[in-house]
Amino acid sequence: MDDSITNRDVACARRVLALESEGLARLADGLDGGFVAALDLIQAARGRVVVSGMGKSGHVARKIAATLASTGTLAFFLHPAEASHGDLGMIADDDVVLALSNSGETPELGDLVAHATRFGNPLIAMVGRAGSTLATAADVALVLPDIDEACPMGLAPTTSTTAMLALGDALAVAMLERRGFSADDFRQLHPGGKLGQRLLKVRDIMHGGDELPLVAPDRPMSEALVTMTAKSFGCLGVVGGDGLLAGVITDGDLRRHMSADLLGRSAGEVMTRNAKTIAPDDLATEAVQVMNARSITNLFVVAAGRPVGILHIHDCLRAGVV
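The chain above was modelled as a monomer; its predicted structure follows.
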């Protein structure tokens, strides 16, 4: 391909990205109490956030609704044209409406706005013009800054939709922080795919109960090795009379203590004290990091000092954690 064409295309892309970056910076600088008021309305609502928009704003509205829902704020997208043909019945008394329109004059939103006003549903507008019909009708108007579209004709929604999308993300993340939405909450809503795998906890994939390879400190190594072999983890936990994990015996410990009297020695004499462990509510990804850092393949799972499980690197591999 001609270098001049390539250079022209790259220059165009850079111009678009620069304009949209500038738009986002101006949006951030212009945030005020209206943003906080919008959050207050969403948090106070006992129902859901009904997000709506037409055309490109509608596509952005769908994404905002999905992001809100996936981060702990009940939300759904309502197509404004379908709303006018019966879907207004999907809006409950306790819902709050978030309507998107760059011009603020989108006719398809008229019935939705009228319905919200008539039945007292709080209305948040995300608009490009402060004096527009939608902004005037809203309880809170989130007005985008006066920014140029990246389209050279200034017609195609580009910078404006990027700003709307980013503002929707800001609302969702701010609500997430207000609600104290945790990684565990996130995992409950994202059980599939890589996100679900990354958020698996150790307790979800560990072995427990009778599978645990455990012996008392005073048991001879002849007996300990039988238990170690039978459980097939290549290691052994040594538990004192108080039920606490006193130490761990690994293949490396056996090599270090290899001698003619090994089988007659006690597990407590051979074990490694203060072995690295992990908690059942830690993320499985953290367990993998520990095992990689220490070049080990097993970790005992301990709660209040007591062994409740064991995790092998292969368990993590099967679960897709690594």
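Residues 285 and 321 are 6 Å apart (CA to CA).
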